[in-house]
Amino acid sequence: MEIQSELNLQFRHNTKTLAALLLALAQAKNEATKLYILPHHRADGDAIGSAFGLNIACQKLGLKSEVLLAEPVPPMYAYLSLPDYAVLDTEAKAAQFVDKLTQEQAYVCLIDNSAPETRLGVRFALWQACQEERRLIIDHHVSDIPAGERYDIAANEIACSGMVAELIILLEKQSGQSLLDANLANCLMTGIITDSGQLSYAATSAQTYLLMAILKQHGADQELINRVHYHTMSVAKLKMIALAFSQTEFSYDNTCLVSHLTAEQIQQAQAGEVDLDGISSMLREVRSVKVAVLLRSTLKGNVLGSIRSTEAINCQNIAKQLGGGGHERASGFTIYNVTLEEAKAHFLSACKTELESEDAE
């Protein structure tokens, strides 16, 4: 790949370790060996792109693998040709795979996720059942998990799909086999584009553009990806945007914006996760706003928060105070058994601490 050598990609030590392991597993040709790939629940473009990107590459190498999701892939990803996958949305379904995992020489890979207890749902049982030496992680979120040779966690990376792209390029080098094609490149580019805000976020690096060039060279269609994710929307999403903007409140001299959606409003509009994605980023675009949050209640009595901030505020610090995490400019949290008003009060308190810290500097 001429473009790759000219642009001098850099590879992390743990990426090299994972590449060597996956290649060794593939070359061993052991029918009992399988890799289960678990992205976070409510999978977004990066979780879907990175999980299925790794899945497709492993299958091309001859390593049996399968993606296990918490929910079905939304219809908007129909432009991707995805391998068969399983949806584990009940404890009974998860238990079936736990039984399979213990019978097989199975590995479990968390992808775009290094918080298994809170971001896997019932699939956490598989992580618990997996032998520690067979656990793998590829993630770009800040993590409390202790460092490990097979844990490729890089919080400075813009997208997990970029990390998987690097891994696949290494696998091509080491195996001498061509893995990237148009469909695989589209999976990975989907993750990079959607998690980087169309390459607009600060964590977008020179290496991100190098990877985009390589994926483009292999047939990725950035026009299609951008059109699907940023230039078309469902009626349900339009309704959610209208409600979110009509239910905004400002605090702290208009630097903090809070909006909310109730579970009933979401249900009435028949809105899914893809219809809610991106709204918090739109709220942040108000000129005076340094930090914005979209709160949404669930039918179980919990409140989910999606925070976005400008360079003036580290919203990851706010999310951590509320039991969540993420990135400096994009983070999230879940507060259990609270009303929207209570969640709003918790958020504003955490936000005040961060704003005061920023003012002190």
UniProtKB/TrEMBL annotation:
A Pfam family (short name) is: DHHA1
Report the residue ranges that make up the DDH domain in this protein: 34-192
Extract the Gene3D superfamilies matched here. Answer: 3.10.310.30, inorganic pyrophosphatase (n-terminal core)
Which InterPro entries does the protein's record reference?
DDH_dom, DHH_sf, DHHA1_dom, Oligoribo/pAp-PDE_c-di-AMP_PDE
GO molecular function terms attached to this record? nucleic acid binding
Q: Looking at the record's lineage, which domain of life comes first? A: Bacteria
Domain DHHA1: start-end pairs: 268-354
PANTHER family from the xrefs?
Answer: BIFUNCTIONAL OLIGORIBONUCLEASE AND PAP PHOSPHATASE NRNA (PTHR47618)
What is the protein name for this chain?
Answer: DHHA1 domain protein
